Amino acid sequence: MGGEEYIRIVDLFYEDIMKISFAICKDIYDAEDIAQTTFIKLLNHSGDFDDDYHVKRWLIKVAVNECRILWKSPWKSKVDYFIPEKSVQSKGRNDEEELVSEAVGSLKKKYREVVHLFYYEEYSAKEIAEILDIKENAVFKRLQRAREIIKKYLLDKSSREEIGETGYECKL
Amino acid sequence: MNVNYDDDYIRAKYKAAIDRTEINETGKNKVRSLAYNKEMLNGKGNVIKVTRRITKTAAVLITVFCMIAVGGGIAWAMTSSALKDYFFPKNDRTFETVYAEANKKYDFDDYIVTYSGSVYDAAVGRGYLQFNFADGSGNPINVADALEYNEKLGFGRDNTALTRRVSVHGYTLGDTNIIFLFMNNDSLYTIKEGSNVLVKFSTSRNEVKDSKPVSFMVLNESEWKEIAEKVEELDESALCASSYDYNTLTPILYYDRDSMQPEVAEILMEYDPIEIKNTTSPPQIVEEKGLKITVGRLDVLFEYNADSCNAHRFILKRKDGTEIIFKRNDDESWSVVGLDKDRVFVSCKKSGRKIEKDYTMGVVLDPDEKVMIEIE
């Protein structure tokens, strides 16, 4: 791939790749590594792409695979990082959005992949199945399970807030 | 506050949350700069997070150093031959030598050995030798002892393998017993109390005890993977299953529906399992001399006559009139060691406690074919 074309693609999709990597890995530094590796692979890629949409799907697939490789690495599987809750800077703050983000973050990795591709990238189940190399039925099941978990998480949180769970109730 | 947490809500909030994530421009610029510095790539692109990489590298080096130190310590310890034997026991024992050692330890004369044989676990590609002992009444079967003994003989006590193993075996010693055991990991340890022998067929000499309906099915490779994937979706980690076949290692799934999650049982039922009917009464002897086996898709009737062990020929008659004849010598005995929806397994071995010959033949039948086995 030529230099100018490569830069155009980086400008176009770097953020998307960072976001999906971060959504899956939950570590901004790992996400940067994955984005970097993904674009290096693009630079060395000899095949042709039909259009930008095709490039994006290819990049996402590579990024997801890189996340999986990273997750399976002995280092990652044996070492648990302590990641401060606010390790990522967010512009502004919205409680509901934070809550949904937390709920998604609480999911297993395999559900986070599907959730991000479905809700953020708005891919269809068929496309997600192709990207993740799983069956379409599995996508539906993972989405269904993820929805249930997210909903339960949100309901739990909201019910706690409604009863004002800020600490111990003091009875006089 | 009543909020409808539907797809639109989740999508809107999740998108907004992700969009608010600040992406470091420095990282992006460095990735952009790769276009002009291909030599920087150097295969791995290690140039970007130098500090972090150095920290990681240092940690890896320390880990490697520790591993070398530990490895060196172990190697040093290995110079002691006793330790060497302990860590790397010789595993060149044959069935006969192991049997003799077990006999010495357990004194088989005190027991009637109802089952002994090798277990091959196709899931992990490893063989195990297993002894189960029973007293005259047919129980308890001391699997714990067998496991312990296996361990001492260097066959390992690999629980990982056991969790995925269900063994089905029938065996005949002397001229009386044929026993089918269906075991899963749970029953493997509780079986000692005699409480969870899933299926036990016996000859007319012994009453059938502890019988319980068990389903089993024969799967091909893709069905096996399909089930595994579906079950994985349900987060069912301990499916009682095994790939097992005497001859072809065709995957066969055995399970006890009662002890399984309903969702998993539902999935399995899609594959049309064969159910072995609960047998609470002694097997019915249909003919004076002979063994009759009827194989059908949803009903397996197993009837057995003790005299079959003394027969010299097993004749398997197909519906179309063709026959398959198994012959044996005077000092050998027969047993039907397994059957599934389209096969019958017949085992031949020398009679007596010392097993000198043990082989199994599988006969492939049509799924709906009624087969008659006669004894001569």
Structure summarized in a few sentences:
The complex is a heterodimer of chains A (172) and B (376). By secondary structure, chain A is mostly helical. Chain A is built from eight helices and no strands.
Describe the structure.
- The complex is a heterodimer of chains A (172) and B (376).
- Chain A is mainly alpha-helical.
- Chain A has two domains: 1-89, no CATH class; 93-163, Orthogonal Bundle (Arc Repressor Mutant, subunit A).
- Chain A has eight helices and no strands.
- Chain A has helices at 3-25, 28-44, 52-72, 74-78, 95-105, 109-120, 125-132, 136-162.
- The relative contact order of chain A is 0.10.
- The model of chain A is unreliable at 78-89 and 165-172 (pLDDT under 50).
- Mean pLDDT of chain B is 46; it is low at 39-51, 89-96, 106-147, 152-221, 234-257, 272-311 and 334-376.
- In chain B, 29% of the residues are buried.
- Chain B has 376 residues and is α+β, with helices and mostly antiparallel strands.
- Chain B has a domain at 23-88.
- Helix content of chain B is 31%, strand content 22%.
- In chain B, a hairpin with a 7-residue loop joins strand 6 (242-243) and strand 7 (251-255).
- At the A-B interface, helix 1, helix 2, helix 5, helix 6 and helix 8 of A face helix 1, helix 2 and helix 4 of B.
